[in-house]
Amino acid sequence: MSRTNDLRHVIEADRAHVWHHLSQHKPYESVDPRVMVEGKGMRVWDATGREYLDAVAGGVWTVNVGYGRTSIADAVRDQLVKLNYFAGSAGSVPAALFSERLIEKMPGMSRVYYSNSGSEANEKVFKMVRQIAHRHHGGRKAKILYRERDYHGTTIGALAAAGQDQRRDQYGPFPDGFVMVPHCLEYRSQWGAVENYGEMAADAIEAVILREGPDTIGAICLEPVTAGGGVITPPKGYWEKVQDICRRHEILIHIDEVVCGMGRTGAWFGYQTYGVQPDFVTMAKGVASGYAAIACTTTTEAVFALFKDDAADPMSYFRDISTFGGCTAGPAAALETMRIIEDEGLLENTVAMGERLMAGLHGLAERHAVVGDVRGKGLFYGAELVADRATKEPAEEKRVQAVVADCMAHGVIIGATNRSLAGLNNTLCLSPALIATPADIDRIVEAIDGALGRVFA
Ligand code: PLP
């Protein structure tokens, strides 16, 4: 059978049996589902042979060092033939070595707990916070704050902490003890045009804390830059004040770096850009760049100590396991991913290419009235589309999707924010691999330029 016939068979097998993530399948009755076949650097090819420039690092900001890295494949292969797996109640060579390298990059942090996905890494924190509440606060301080428009994962526990209605709707009931605080998107300020928006957004968190009772709240979970909820960079003064509020009320700070971690914002971690000292940091997507599944929940020695203070108590330790948190491929791939980022100067490239991307997007805002706001950090940008700049009425979802489809038709894959019942699914998302060149950035901007012109003509 020819390669073309093989791939035709693959497409039909996909259509018949694969349930795609986040997808309505009715259209696949008349059009082929897209099946990806190959990737190299910034480019991917689908089963029909079409080439795309990928401006979203594997669709969901994951493939940070690009496709086709044989050195990662070799590192994983070498590790797999030596020892593929042993339960995480024991250590492994790559887990120990990656933990050491990771903690070097995270002053103040000390311990790494391995699992498989961003959702799971976040759930570990929720369990740790609850156990600390039960063991050290008489069952109080068990509530967890989360923010409107943030997202922390797909499991029922993580969805209980999701500030995105489109992800939650119809999946309830959710567990108790999760409390939402207001978003911090200045472009859609809840208080109109104010000088000190960042401080007001932080004060709004404190108001929730005071309403609930500070002695009932154990932690706050925040994305450093909100990803799927609109690429929301924190406003000036926000993080400083949030940190101060949390310290005053003895609330642990959990930063969800599942998207921003490992270089996406131009620093190893997004929170480091904003001078925060967290108690927990979770990460997943970019850690091994999608070459193997891995997620990490990191914490401080002070938090870790709370789980070993009374060895005589048979319930004192963290009673949690993740079977595949014992896979060795993840940390082996992560070690090599980290080496690539360092040796190829990819943090520096992220900063430089991020500036080029930002300039390009601001140029689009000058040419297209539909671009209402441009925001982001490093190689992580969003362009919010509006029907009317004065009222900021969101652009229609179908037109936002048409821009994404037009870029795809012109060979560039971009993303858009999660669909929202509130109609705020109007932000184009860009997160190219950290290896992007000036030519790649220019091509991405050109594709969006053309698409905006055609869709909003
Ligand atoms: N946290 C954030 C900020 C995310 O964007 C995501 C996924 O998109 C998750 C957590 C969940 O990660 P995973 O899909 O690996 O469970």
Secondary structure elements and their pairing?
Layout: H1 3-17, E1 36-40, E2 43-46, E3 51-54, H2 57-61, H3 70-82, H4 93-104, E4 111-115, H5 118-136, E5 143-147, H6 156-160, H7 165-168, E6 178-181, H8 197-212, E7 217-222, H9 238-248, E8 252-256, H10 270-273, E9 280-283, E10 295-299, H11 301-305, H12 329-343, H13 346-367, E11 371-376, E12 381-388, E13 393-394, H14 397-409, E14 412-413, E15 415-416, E16 427-430, H15 438-455
Parallel strand pairs: 3-14, 5-6, 5-7, 7-8, 8-9
Antiparallel strand pairs: 1-2, 2-3, 4-10, 9-10, 11-12, 12-13, 12-16, 15-16
Helix pairs in contact: 3-12, 4-12, 8-9, 13-15, 14-15
Bound molecules: pyridoxal-5'-phosphate (PLP).
Quick rundown:
The protein is built from 15 helices and 16 strands.
What report would you give on this structure?
The protein has 457 residues and is an alpha/beta fold. It folds into 2 domains: 34-65 and 345-455, Alpha-Beta Complex (Aspartate Aminotransferase, domain 1); 71-343, Type I PLP-dependent aspartate aminotransferase-like (Major domain) (Aspartate Aminotransferase, domain 2), CATH 3.40.640.10. The chain contains 15 helices and 16 strands. The chain has helices spanning 3-17, 57-61, 70-82, 93-104, 118-136, 156-160, 165-168, 197-212, 238-248, 270-273, 301-305, 329-343, 346-367, 397-409, 438-455; strands at residues 36-40, 43-46, 51-54, 111-115, 143-147, 178-181, 217-222, 252-256, 280-283, 295-299, 371-376, 381-388, 393-394, 412-413, 415-416, 427-430. The strands form 3 sheets. A 7-stranded mixed sheet has the order 4-10-9-8-7-5-6, sandwiched between helices. β7 (217-222), α9 and β8 form a beta-alpha-beta unit. α4 (93-104) packs parallel to α12, α8 (197-212) runs parallel beside α9 and α14 (397-409) crosses α15. The longest helix has 22 residues, at 346-367. The chain is globular and about 65 Å long. The N and C termini lie far apart (46 Å). The mean pLDDT is 96. Pyridoxal-5'-phosphate (PLP) binds next to α5. Its cofactor is pyridoxal 5'-phosphate.
